[in-house]
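Design review, sub-item: ligand-bound model
Attendees: FS, YL, KQ
YL presented the inputs for the beta-D-galactopyranose complex:
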Amino acid sequence: MGIGRLSDGLAPTPPMGWNSWNRFGVKIDERLVLETAEAMVSSGMRDAGYRYVVIDDGWMAPERDRNGDFVADPDKFPSGIRALADRVHALGLRFGIYTDAGTKTCQELPASLGYEFRDARRFAEWGVDYVKVDWCHTQGMGPRALYAKWAMALHAARRPIVLSICEWGRARPWEWAGGLGHLWRTCWDIQPEWSSILTILDRQAELHPFAGPDHWNDPDMLEVGNGDLTAEQSRAHFALWSILAAPLMAGNDLRTMNDDVREILTAREIVAIDQDAAGKQGQRISRNGDIDVWTRAIGTNGDRAIAVLNRGSVAREVRVALEDIGVAPGANVRVRDLWKRADIGEARHEMLIPTSPKSATVLGITAR
Ligand code: GAL
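KQ shared the predicted structure:
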């Protein structure tokens, strides 16, 4: 293991789901998880492709049991994890959990160093489908070796489990993690602020060669519906993450989200960019002052998605030459508004794309 890139079919497209951390931190319990799973179904998110319901840090009791096994916090999860996973499965969803590779989690709870095989076995018994393995309290340890141990432990547990590697991009995981896990964080924690979205985005610009089916760069979970992000900023965040072939893990309160937020998370043609079966991560083709142009190849017929990001505070029209986004000269190009799901015209040689301040304009291009 550790040679080449994973191609086990467990994450043919970037995983989609929900994770408790961004909105709830350690304030999680079985009721929240069940209500969230139900909301995932009733909101249409499950039908839009969201599958994994993942509990992050804060689920475990402060001590392991006498045998050394993990125990769920009995106040937060009185029915136990197995029963919770069963109920999530009964809704047609998958269940994910969190641990840490070191001596303690980031919240000082028991973690998995030295217990990898035991914990992987326990997770498999509980019916876990996805494990996020964090990197706090790992002083002096090599992430490559330790995550390789996790990959072996999950393999030995004989249940298909997605491995989400979370060492924050410190040891250039894109160079080695693709042979071990299905996704790996490329950056520090996201915040529900525009500046955080942009800082993270800039760190992704060189990473497109490393991603593909079953091995994805992870620029962190979504903040759509959290903090002070405006609807426009949330749309830009969501569309850019889709261009990046990022895992789409919602991080908001699904039980109380408003229609704007739900419509962003379930926007069919934006999600389709992310989930394109060819699995080619997009890239930035230019950055000029406040304007970035990002593009992603869709399918194998030369179709593309394009996002023009305006970081500034004035509206701008941006000229994009079709040649610069890889469209063959003379091709017959149709342009589509992917948010509105409407064809908006044809183009020859170049496009003049309107942008609003602190937002992104997202278009689909069909070239024949
Ligand atoms: C961080 C991780 C976050 C969250 C948190 C939990 O290291 O990047 O996504 O899991 O730990 O304590």
